Request: fold
Amino acid sequence: MKVIYKSMYFKKNFNKSFNILLLRILIIFVFILVSFFIIIPLLPLFLKSFSDNKNNFIGFENFINYIQNPSLTQSFINSLKVAITTTFFSVLIGFIYAYALTRTRLPLKKFFNTFSLFSLYIPPLAVAIGLIYIFGKQGLITQGFFGTIPGFDINLYGFNGIIIGEIFYCFPQALIILVSALNLSDQRLYEAAESLKASPLRKFLTITLPNIKYGLMNSFFICFILSFTDFGVPKVVGGNFNVLATDIYKQVVGQQNFAMGATISIYLLVPSILAFLIDKNFQKNEASLISGKSIPFKPRKNLIVDSIMFIFCSLILILVFGVFSSIVLASLIKIWPYDISLSLQNFRFSNVAGNGYEPYFNTVFMSIYTAIFGTIFVFFTAYLVEKFKPLKKIRMLIYFFSTLPIAIPGLVLGLSYILFFNKPSFSVPFLDFQIFNPFSLLYGTMGILVLANIIHFFTVCFISATTTLKQIDKEFEEVSESLKVPFYKTFLRITIPLSLPTILEIGSYYFVNSMITVSAIIFLYPAKIPVSSVSIVNMDDAGDTASAAAMSTLIVLTSLFVRLIYEFTSRNVSKKSSVWINPLET
Amino acid sequence: MIKKEGSFKYLEIKNISKNFGETFVLKNIHLDVFKGEFLCLLGPSGCGKTTLLRIISGLERQTNGDIVQDGLLISNSPTEKRDFGIVFQSYALFPNLNAKQNIAYGLENKKINKKEIEKRTNNLLRLVGLEKYSDQFPSQLSGGQQQRVALARAMALSPGLLLLDEPLSALDAQVRSKLRNEIKLIQKKLNLTTIMVTHDQTEALSMADRVVVMERGHIAQIGTPFELYKNPITPFVADFIGKMNLLKGKYDKKNCVFYYLNNRFLISQNTEYSFLENCLLGIRPEDIEIIKFRKNIEKEENILRVKIKEITYLGTIFRLTVVLESKLEENIFVDVISNQVISNNLKIGDFIDIKLKKEKIKLFESNL
Reply:
């Protein structure tokens, strides 16, 4: 009887366990945040696409108008063309480059590895500007280096220019995924195949390709979405070749036609989400074929393959550096191509659409805030989803929502944020009742820009945080529980120190991407807070390309500087942590 | 209840079941653990032993049943409210904390002053013999040392119950047998009730006061190592604890005779077997005698003429694999002292006579 009495006491006590209660509250809190930042803002966008500009419900009229407008449907086809071509070439180039880095004895591999991702630091807008100075009407190559050699015109403005620019932008993304996929290899499989007299082609088709198929699919998906939805490159070198992204911009900024902007957004969003779902469905089957005991592949010397790869990788880097140097040059030259003396006058930003250095500093601060708050938010979200047992369904929903932003084009995110955040109150359907929208306080502040950036780049950061957390023994939480140490102490004392390299990586990713992004914030930036990527667009629109190039140069240099700080810090961190990771090195 | 060594039930597991949908992982487990006892849960992988351990710790929740620890019903208490320390197979040492900090991890969370923590941590380091290594990080320690840190950390809060989940399986053979003795010594010294999960029967037999043999989610037998060896109640236990030859045949209850192919075996009349005529005869390899060189074989009982198929050297003994001419595919194992093999010059292919000691023969219900 004594036992039964105590049982009732303990049953009550269990439900009151403070830690579990706290955990539940935190999970629900994060769920609410992710819902309000990712999913719910899309609703007003959908509503808008079914209404006219006076907010009357008009059904599918916008969609029908769109299809019946031949110039607009042409944009849709153009976008698809751009996306498919870009995806094909980006994945192809990314794959060859990744293969050279991982599976050959490429000379100067370290150099090629370090600079392979250089173009990630150049905003797509700036790439386009760089291309103008090389291939444009007055470009170096078009004019044959100021007439010294015969010129060559590639017809930059239009499809060609967009494709080249997009490949610059997309191929590093494919490269990152494919390098990590190709790095997971097992030497023994190749040795086994060799002992069975398999030809190199057979080895490639039966071992290499099946091993990277998930990575390959994922890079197709990423490149498709990026190039389908990018705004920067077509804006600058698109000429008369219209794509969906530039159409939305024209409808919203040019004609203030939010309803049509929303409708086109849906046309942009649907293929992206479709690609996302296909990829997600495909990745579901992923099971690691490579076990922890695998012996990594050690490439053998092969003079022919190695030299071909060397030439290929050099060509790619020459193009990347060529574009970058032409941006820098353009920013330093007085009046291209008439007065090619060097000066810093383009860096004054005084007589142009810019506002001096204000946009630049705004962007830097915006990127710092994004890096700090984004990293905290993303890591904490991944931690709650990955490490705990309660509220399984809600955690799965948070996971799903967190992977979604990669399929939401920046322009669509920006537009949905305007529609959602500028509403001072929500009206409850069927009831004559208004609820105050607390998020509307963010509207017109730096906060909304930071938030848009955090969400825009959320997925990549979330996945990398999740991957790191998965590698940390889940028994740490169980041991802590058995030692009566609450989870948050273990989080601070064990999980964070162990994840520090990834946390720094996420911070640097957020910073760099916030520096270069334009699509998510071009609709959102308040007039009193100009940002540099938008001023590049405006300067370029105003024909002041040199100043646009100067601003681009500043952005790239700042990103590189931050990346250097990152490399330095993470080296220090790994020096410290090497004691517990790699005892032999100390 | 009187606290009398060996009779005080410290932990009572009452009718514990665990299932995931239709599949049962544990089915109606009843088990009492006495104060100060070292209990082993032994069984092949998938028998539910680790699940039972995790249910005791609260890391997993049972579908049915109750657990009483030290007179308190803890069936629904969260892990952090239960009184136990645990060592995992992977040790789960915090890689960024050194040995001392790992051990002090649980203490620091309690409201104890620093001096006291320092004192207790040092005591624990001394207990596991790692005073010299207190500043080393886990990656700088050998497997055995890591194991000791994990053990010290589990004992830091002076728990009433110690749970060990395959604590030695990641170590190599020599370190393992050394640590076996150390763990056992510490456990006895502190009179700490301990439950260890293992799939290694030697480990279980050499360490445990009592062993719980588990098979497919239920308890096959509970007993001291010697009892289990001597009197296994199922063929599974018989073959899992040590080695047992199992011959399928017919049992004639009236005459106490077992028929195996054309052979008759007399069964000791001391035990009454109540089951049907189809059953298994069990005999351990060491309970079979070679009688090749005795003269009056005809007078002896329970003799089989067999052919030597394989001779395996196992140290002080040889294990012979022998077969009947009429049933070549059924191996019978016979353990013989090395000298006997050498002096008799036994070779593969030789025919010998073996004798199954009547009083050592066991019969089991055949579930085939």
Summary: Residues 1-15, 582-586 of chain A have pLDDT under 50 and may be disordered. The radius of gyration of chain A is 26 Å. Strands of chain A lie at 333-335, 339-342, 425-427, 434-436.
